Amino acid sequence: MTAMILKELDITNFRSIRGHIHAPLDAKVVLIHGENGAGKTSLLSAIELALTGSVQSLYRADAGYAKQLLHRSAGEGSVLLKTSGAVGQQSFETRLDGQGATAAGRLEQRLATFFSERAYLPQSLLGQLLQIYQESGSGSDSPLAQFVGNLLGLDRLDALEAGLKPLVDVRNVRKVVDGWSSAETEKTRLERLLESQRKTRAAVAESLTADFEALKIIAEHFAPELAVSEDSLDALTASLQDEADAAALEKRYDQVREFGAIRREIAQAQESIEGANALPDADASAAAYQLWESSDGARVSALRARIEQLLPKVSLPSDLEHFPEEAIAQLRAAAKELSDRAAQARADSARRVAAESERDAVLTQRNTIDAEVSSISSDSSSLASALAELTSFVENEICPVCDRDFREVTEGSLSEHVHAKVRRLSGAAERLLTLGRSRSDLQLSVERLEREIEALTSRILDSKFLADLDRRAADLDRAAVELEGLAEAFRQGGRLRSEDVAARRARIELQTRTAALLGARETLGGFARTVGASEPSEGETFEAAVERIEIFLMAESKRLGDRVTKRREGLEYVTTIRAGLARLTETDAGINKDLTAWQRADSSLTRAQELRDEGIAIRNAVDRVRSTIIRREFNDRLNFLWGDLFVRLAPVEPFVPAFRIPPAQTQRLQPKLITEHRYGGDAGGTPGAMLSAGNLNTAALTLFIALHLAVPVKLPLLILDDPVQSMDDVHIAHFAALLRTLSKEHGRQILIAVHDRQLFEYLRLELSPAFTEDSLLTLELSRSRRRDTLCSHNRYAFREETALVSAA
């Protein structure tokens, strides 16, 4: 048993619990009271969520319940449960959000399962418990099968029987026995693999023969003295790897590329000479540009320098022809920007003066309202209400407050005087409310105007700086106008300078290409000598010489390329032959290995069949032993405990619920719920047919407690959510005695929630501490005015009764 007890619980925004509550739980008995909807079930569900990470009763109702755990009015929540015991202090926390719950710690699976099934009885499960066990399936994971395993300790027999069951059918053996199906498959696979490997070996040998024949043909060109065989492959490889042909081929490729460059050089020189008659007149272009320079050059240069000084951060075109268009656009844009900035500064200054005037006027109105408000009493409304109530007590001229005769003071009736006073005070109160609203509006206007004045003040420019902006804008406008007047001169100068530069460049290129054409013939002759071809003769044209040398280079490149290709093919055949020989060796080794494996698989299957026969015999023996133990322990132990608890709570009920195990084998456990008469006789029907609603509820409750007591205790906890539904006073009294026995003699920590106030007070008295180490805690859940959940607690310790001792 794990000596763990609950210590305290903190809940924030969980299900119906709104806000945060703290609930101490460190007592032998914890009684929880609250009206329906106050949060009792939510508090107990929070304990289950913290310990197990889930709420089983909610999961049965809705698999997606986790999204509904957070209170609808909150964005996040949490559940923190602290425990104490032999293992020390432990904390189990679960955080909640709109997507679900995240557990920071929980019990191990074995303890969590025990808590959900044997320690905590939710209110929703009480009426379903008998039906769950009555309709429980016969599988090993059903609630009844799990209980039988815990009760009788038959885990080893169950595991042995479950493990040996598939041996009956060889198809099941293939599914569950490791190696059986794989051994059969492996044997079949090896048979097919051996057949495939033998075919592969034949194909590899045939391919090797063809490769050797092709290699012999290539070896005749490079190593005719070598006999091609497996032993001569290394020597043949060394002969084929000679790099002389590859180096010669690479050199020829370089010569071809060099020859292409010479051809392009000759073609360009010839084109330049042919186009010499189309060159522009350089002298005429220079004279036209000098004439423009003398007439407009100085003005254009001066204006350009001034514009670049006005626009120091702008990159302007260096070409005179495109300069005017770009410079005018930049000048206009800069002038507009400066003008807009100056205009905005003047508008801000004017607006600040107007805003200050508006603020002064609003302040005057606010002060006037303040003066009027101070003259009106703030208690006018209250006094008017009091006098209005007082009029109902005025029956004559005697004042009901001071008992004085009003006729002694003035003429007229007391009732009319009071009514007139009420009307005046009511008008003053209404006027005070109107003035208050007007003053609030004026105060907002004052604050808005002051913010506007502060912003305008920060943007106002200095007068000197404003004048400088105007002056710079005027300079930019004047420069733009002047540039528009000289735009045509700029374009003409740029055009004439471009023509002069182009004419000079064309003359220099013509001179250079003429000299290049003369040197090209010498270059072609030297290249022909280098490659081994004849030089161009005196009467031979460039075209004829170039074509002759090109044919010579292509023929040499082809010859060397063929030799390099044959060497590469020979090396590829050598590589293929080596791989084929290795594959042949590998295939022979694989055939030998797979043949050994086939023999081993065949022997394993023979031995496995013998073990299967032995397992079937063991399974039959286990089934006989297990059936005997289950009938004896299930019928005697559980039924006795359940019946004893039921009789304690319902002493006058003649029919006692029980389980009946069929007399056949218990390999698939299918119990039946019956009722037995207390004084003997034939069994009755199911509890639902024989018991009243109250006793049916008692049968479910005692079944849960019997299941809790019948198995080894892993957690000393018993949590019951409103279990006394439909019980009369007799049942409740016996139930209280049962709880007292479980707490004080069996060492269980009991948490029980009830909604009936009288029952709560009764249980508080019955379960009060009876010795020094005993303790009782009561928790009462309620709602605040804001509908937040409140949890108040009282702790009761053992106190020795001295009054009776003194009396004795």
UniProtKB/TrEMBL annotation:
Pfam families, alphabetized: SMC_N
Annotated RecF/RecN/SMC N-terminal domain residues: 6-761
Keyword annotations of the record: Coiled coil, Exonuclease, Hydrolase, Nuclease
A GO molecular function held by the record: exonuclease activity
Coiled coil: 439-486
Residue intervals passing through the bilayer: none
Gene3D superfamilies named among the record's database cross-references: Helix hairpin bin, P-loop containing nucleotide triphosphate hydrolases
InterPro entries the UniProt entry points to: P-loop_NTPase, RecF/RecN/SMC_N
Protein name: Exonuclease SbcC
Taxon lineage: Bacteria, Pseudomonadati, Pseudomonadota, Alphaproteobacteria, Rhodobacterales
